[in-house]
Design goal:
Rossmann fold, 452 residues, 19% strand, 4 domains, four-stranded parallel sheet
């Protein structure tokens, strides 16, 4: 039997959008920022059978997005979806906008709310400086309710104490307005839409295919010759090698991977990207480094490569290992398919490194930094200091201390970094004793996102 699933380009993702006409029109504008999405729209009318429409669209798309929560909720109750299904949550800028409008028109003393979680409403009310207010939330809003029941809930609250209706359903807003009952229909902003579409993108089959991508890793025992010099016999050296291999085998087993002894002090392993991402908690946790050090007193350098082919992943793993060795070992770096770098990956959740989110991802920046003499070791030390203190302005003396180099060397490399537009002079610092003021340099390669 021939499937009626549409065949499409591998880079193209079919997405079904279900919602009211006004929100679908808004979504169409947002979709212009997602060229890989090929949308199929399902417009909801008052007499539309939600489940029939969802089933019809489901067979021809990779992911479904409902523009309103209550539509999503109705469909989920009766359909066993075979594809990822999302809704646009009313918890961000759209909710803030609606509450701000109510505040200006009616005040925020009494509200009746449907299809929006109470905690998000309370959070934004606090941000708006509201303290003396009364909220009435529709009971068990996670369970689908008839539109008439929701409308009656708002009518009752308006009649009893003048509550202003805050609703996530267009039809409810229209009906209440016809009865001259004050209300505000919470609609997502473009930013809310973007966030939802990004989540849908990550959930598609394309993303799952990426999770099955081959990951290649290289493991190198740091200073192996120096380590073996501690042992008086070849027998003891061979026992050490067996212990190392057993620890590595145990860890690679957690990755559902395959370990290969490349001879001497180097090993390679193969796993899949999805498993590696989950086991490293999003590339932030590799207990192997600490476990090996604790068990047999040695440190490892690890390089991990992603790529569209095994050869590419292997080449990137070698680049990543070089970064780890340059830093001095006992770390892991990752080089992704676009040659951007992540690292160093934390060695354990029990050290100070846990607080650092060190990610160097701009390939062009890394190339420019390397040409200016900013090694991976320097880059990482600076990023760690920035991550810890949130400061990007330093004197040459402070940089010398951070990088563990002389002040003369710091001045020399700062000139190179200035030529490469990695730093800039922003002022001078007066000193308490006689002498020239110290120049203050700003690390311009640090972005606002990395400071957060």
């Amino acid at each position: 039997m021939q499937s009626n699933k549409r065949v499409h380009d591998s880079s193209e993702i079919n997405i079904g959008i279900i919602g009211s006409k006004s929100l679908i029109d808004q979504t169409k504008e947002t979709l212009k920022s997602f060229p890989n999405f090929k949308p199929v729209f399902g417009v909801i009318e008052p007499d539309t059978a939600i489940t029939d429409l969802a089933i019809k669209l489901m067979d021809g798309v990779d992911v479904l997005v409902f523009t309103e929560y209550h539509l999503y909720n109705l469909a989920k109750q009766s359909i066993d979806f075979s594809i990822p299904v999302h809704h646009v949550p009313l918890m961000g800028t759209g909710l803030y906008r609606s509450l701000f409008l109510i505040k200006n028109r009616y005040g925020l003393t009494r509200l009746s709310v449907d299809t929006i979680e109470e905690k998000y409403v309370i959070k934004i009310l606090a941000e708006l400086g509201e303290e003396d207010y009364k909220l009435k939330i529709i009971p068990n809003h996670s369970k689908p309710k008839l539109i008439e029941d929701i409308i009656n809930f708002h009518i009752d609250n308006y009649n009893s104490d003048g509550s202003i209706a805050l609703t996530g359903i267009q039809e409810v807003s229209v009906r209440l307005s016809e009865m001259n009952i004050p209300n505000e229909w919470v609609t997502p902003t473009q930013q809310d839409m973007i966030v939802s579409l990004e989540r849908a993108l990550l959930a598609t089959k394309t993303r799952r295919n990426k999770e099955s991508q081959i990951v290649f890793g290289l493991i190198n025992v740091d200073n192996f010759k120096r380590v073996t010099e501690k042992y008086t016999s070849e027998h003891d050296v061979q026992l050490l090698k067996l212990n190392i291999q057993q620890i590595l085998l145990d860890y690679i087993k957690q990755l559902d991977g395959h370990l290969i002894n490349l001879g001497g002090e180097e090993y390679s392993f193969i796993t899949t990207r999805g498993i590696f991402e989950r086991e490293t908690r999003g590339y932030k946790f590799i207990p192997l480094l600490q476990d090996t050090n604790n068990a047999i007193g040695i440190t490892l350098s690890i390089g991990v490569g992603f790529g569209s082919t095994a050869a590419e992943a292997g080449s990137h793993a070698r680049l990543a290992l070089r970064q780890s060795k340059e830093l001095g070992g006992d770390v892991c770096y990752i080089v992704r398919e676009d040659k951007s770098v992540l690292g160093p990956v934390d060695i354990t959740t029990h050290t100070q490194y846990e607080r650092y989110d060190l990610a160097i991802t701009d390939a062009k920046l890394l190339e420019r930094a390397e040409k200016a003499g900013m090694s991976a070791s320097y880059m990482t030390k600076l990023m760690a200091r920035v991550a810890r203190y949130g400061i990007i302005d330093y004197t040459a003396q402070e940089l010398a201390s951070t990088l563990k180099i002389t002040i003369r060397s710091a001045h020399r490399i700062l000139l190179k970094w200035m030529d490469a537009e990695l730093v800039e002079i922003i002022g001078e610092e007066k000193v308490t004793y006689k002498g020239r003021p110290r120049r203050i340099y700003r690390l311009t390669f640090i972005t606002e996102e990395q400071l957060k």
